[in-house]
Design goal:
Pfam families: Rick_17kDa_Anti. This protein is α+β, with helices and mostly antiparallel strands and about 180 residues long. It contains three helices and six strands, in the order αββααββββ. It has a domain at about 50-135. Helix 2 (about 70-85) runs antiparallel to helix 3. It is rod-shaped.
């Protein structure tokens, strides 16, 4: 065999190699999808719900301020008058009685008999914010169970996506070992 014949024979063998490998190995094909079932998971995402309510709150009114000026002036005037009326040891008693009576009269005149007891409670509206945590459940698709038909056989596999009407397959062909 000459060199030229050997080269032609080698070229033919090398070109036939991919065909021989295609017979034993992997190839791609498609299966017909017959069912897609989503796998759904329930997830709780708690959230806050708040609202504002208006409530009636009692407010205590402070009593008005009393004036002491009338008591002082009335006490001084009563003491002077009592001192003028009494004599001897009775003068001191008359001065004290005049001071007390003058203070009472001066207070009533100055404050005009107003009622200084605490007034009735007033009602004031106040905004109150109330919040609470509520469960918020969400459905989340975490994958798909895909059933497909390939050459008359049914197969079911989990997938991360919905493949549509057909699924791409990688088919491996191997000779049976004896």
């Amino acid at each position: 065999m000459n060199v030229q014949s050997k080269l032609v024979l080698s070229a033919l063998c090398l070109s036939a190699l991919p065909l021989a490998q295609a017979q034993v190995g992997d190839f791609e094909d498609f299966g017909r999808v017959t069912r897609v079932q989503p796998r759904v998971e329930q997830v709780n995402r708690p959230r806050q719900e708040c609202r504002t309510e208006y409530v009636q709150v009692p407010v205590r009114q402070a009593p008005p301020q009393r004036s002491a000026g009338g008591s002082i002036i009335g006490g001084i005037a009563g003491a002077i008058i009592g001192n003028q009326v009494g004599g001897g040891n009775g003068r001191a008693a008359a001065t004290a009685a005049g001071a007390i009576a003058g203070a009472v009269v001066g207070d009533r005149v100055d404050n005009q008999g107003q009622n200084y007891a605490p007034g009735p409670d007033r009602v004031q509206e106040q905004a109150v914010r109330q919040c609470r945590t509520v469960d918020a459940w969400e459905s989340r698709t975490v994958g798909y169970d895909v059933t497909y038909d390939y050459r008359g056989h049914q197969y079911t596999v989990p997938m991360s996506y919905d493949p549509g009407q057909r699924v791409k397959l990688r088919v491996t062909v191997q000779p049976e070992q004896m």
